[in-house]
Specification:
By secondary structure, the protein is of the alpha+beta class. The protein is built from five helices and five strands, in the order αββββααβαα. The longest helix has about 35 residues.
Length: about 170
Amino acid sequence: MISGLHVEVVLAAAYALFLAGVAFVLELVARKSHKRAEAYRHAGFVYFRELDYFECPAGHQLIQLQTDHQRRTTSYRAAAGDCNTCSLKLNCTDSDTGRLIERRLDTWIQSEMRRFHRGISTTLLVLASAFLLAEAVRYPQPRDRNTLMILLLTVGVALFKLVGSSGQRERI
């Protein structure tokens, strides 16, 4: 016994906290990675939302070409003449038809990668809850059960918030 708790209860609680911690870190890392990848893809380009166009580092406009609703992307292209006479072309594009950029219509909250990572995080929290619940059933002593139920409530609240935020939309 450790502080009046069975060793198995302490180990199950530690494991549940570990799983919850991994789920939390996974959410943070996934969000940061997605934002970094999006920023890198359009590095040096400025998007003007009101007028719906990009501006390249040389000051040329990339106008909307098409929107693919199935892939949830919008394509923007610079004029071929602008790119072919630009001094930055070698570092920007090898296309003779002008630089092409795709903008995703889905934000992080709506993206497939977010749903994938959210599924893993949710699974980890459900697993942590299952461990805690199983231990609470196995060890009915008040001190063991109370400790496990407090942790179960905490993990349950985190799970509820995680699942509840799945349907929300994020502003760009």
